[in-house]
Write the structure tokens for this entry.
Amino acid sequence: MIFEDRADAGRRLAAALQHYKGTDALVLAMPRGGVVVGYEISRALGLPLDVLLCRKIGAPENPEYAIGALCETGDLQLNEAEIAALEREAMAAFRALGARVHEQPIPALAPSNALRRIVLTVECAALHRELVRTRRADYNPETLARMMPGFALGAVDYLRALQLRTPLLERFVAEVFGACDVLALPTCPVRTPTLAETDTGGDSRFVAISTAMGSAIGFANYLGLPALSVPMGFDSRGMPVGLQLVGRPFAEALLLRTAHAFETQTGWTSRRPPGAG
């Protein structure tokens, strides 16, 4: 779809969002161009307008092409003390098994995670397009919140996200697996949230928490790297914490042997959280 300008895009988008008119919805716009679009939506639907400050994440080799953004509300800690402590215990278990363990810097995960979101949301939108049109009320708000951005993305965004996968994969393999056989990191770098923390109607709080929860696994999904998760303990609330093991392409057999050795050494698979019946 071709627009005359950003204002025209905002008016057309407002026409498709008429079901929000008269609700308590809030229009959030991202500078620079998003403010013009958001203003037209706010004016047409009679909704309040606010601005979400962010910093663009540029694509590798093309920093002007935005593949994501870092939001001003970056208050989620991605490696909490409890998880870090359990991770140190897990590394001690590997050392006891005779493995050589060392800290390894890895390429930033944000670009891969952002590109994965493009691929994922576009494919979800394509798969669910007819059902969302005819049975929107049957979807829960959390699912819609994660899926709806895909309807606003185009073929160029999708294909570009796929094209960037190979150079990112080659860089990751060279920088990480040139120095190790298996990469270990938390499956979820934040504590497991409660139902109350996530059952928020698909608002910005849900999006922030769910994005943080998947921030350490999305890159492997996007790059096509084999990965698995094994239990490595419980946090202070008795919630499970996982250890993710990632290997180079086609290293599934090595990952399975490594996971089996770790589970045998630690016995976490047979333990129950404190207070469980």
